[in-house]
Fold each of these.
Amino acid sequence: MKTVSITIDGNEITAREGEKLLWVALDNGIYIPNLCALRENPEVFAGCRLCFVEVEGNNRPVAACTVPVTEGMVVSTRGEKALRLARSGFELLMSSHPVDCAHCTRSGSCELQKIAKHLGAKLKTKRLRNLQRHLPIDDSHPLFIYNPNKCALCGRCVWICRQHPGAGVFGFAHRGFERVISTFCEEPMGAYKCENCTECISVCPTGALVFKNGEEQSA
Ligand code: FES
């Protein structure tokens, strides 16, 4: 496979031509906030709008998960325009997220905490109205608990679940502020056919899907 040379934040990097910029940066130890991308998923969802970077020659920041690397590309992950967009997206997300890290099993491995630190942003936003939802928590499954109030709607669980023939437990339901990830007909998780592979838990970046026994997930 052809390789290309690119520069990210002044670091010269060799990458496979066409590989998405997000993965090239992460593989080379350069963090870019991201929630919805999954390396195994070839269809880019680009729903979280947190992975903005600036690419020389482009007037506007671009989502790193959507951009294939090309020879000579010069990228900045710390440009002011990109950071401003990412911070706004993060604040919007956090305006409806319950911040109860002290009682959350994902605290310490939560992607939201990592993103906040990277962006220099607060988990509790003061600039936007607090729009927390109070949806029922589903603990009907024998292995895991689903708390839709902590869901960032990244869609990772939806995609990974669909990779199992006959599974596809998760899907998006409703629109706008009412949008949730749910089962078909919004049945309780425990009542739905599930292979218990628990891959949904390993890809969840927040505390929305957690093991009942407190086991750590790997995302
Ligand atoms: S990771 Fe790029 S838009 Fe979500």
Amino acid sequence: MIYELYYWPGIQGRGEYVRLALEDAGARYVDTALLPEKKGGGVAALDRFLEGEDIARPPFAPPFLRAGRQVIGQTANILLFLGGRLGLAPRDSAGKLWTHQLQLTIADFVVEIHDTQHPIAGSLYYEEQKAAARRRSKVFVAERLPKFLGYFERVLERNRARGPWMVGGRATYADLSMAQVIAGLHYAFPRATRAAMPAYPRLAALHGEVFARPRIKRYVASRRRLAFNNEGIFRHYRELDQP
Ligand SMILES: N[C@@H](CCC(=O)N[C@@H](CS)C(=O)NCC(=O)O)C(=O)O
């Protein structure tokens, strides 16, 4: 199976959670965001599925994954599908559901992180909602960041299995996503994140372990991994980074 990942070109965004799973498993996939339109990539590739009249089960938004005849949307749903196939989820149904639950909570966290710089609307420029972004970021750093990080730290603490992972004794796609969120927070809110992380030693360790995994290391060093930038979900605006 050669998977096809569809996502916006130029940013890591939510596509990155899927990429990390595919890369960690050494799966064969085509990242259409890296292909020129002439070769079936870019935004035109997305539009074929988002707007094509012949798509029986259209996704609402990227990322989506094509696996043979199936087109699967929603990041957590894609990872639920890939988890079992790539050996990045437990085999038992309770474990699968728990991993999915963690991924959905990560998705909630990602929305709130995004909303710090776009609190009014994603369709407006940051500059048009700067004052609201400042207020939102202040509350985010003071209340929501510790609430989410504290929750995931507790999840790690309560996992009785040995090792740095959230579910059992092996890494799951939720661990890869969690590490990506921490990396993104360091980019977007460097001061606030540096100040916060000592309270979450297990999360800090998970982050380190994920980015030390050989395939992830190779991926991060490759040209396939785009750098964080201010077009993506994690954006750095100095004025919002208030520890
Ligand atoms: N819940 C979806 C959200 C998907 C989403 O918001 N995708 C963004 C890019 S990261 C998008 O293109 N949204 C278009 C829109 O919401 O109109 C997921 O986790 O995959």
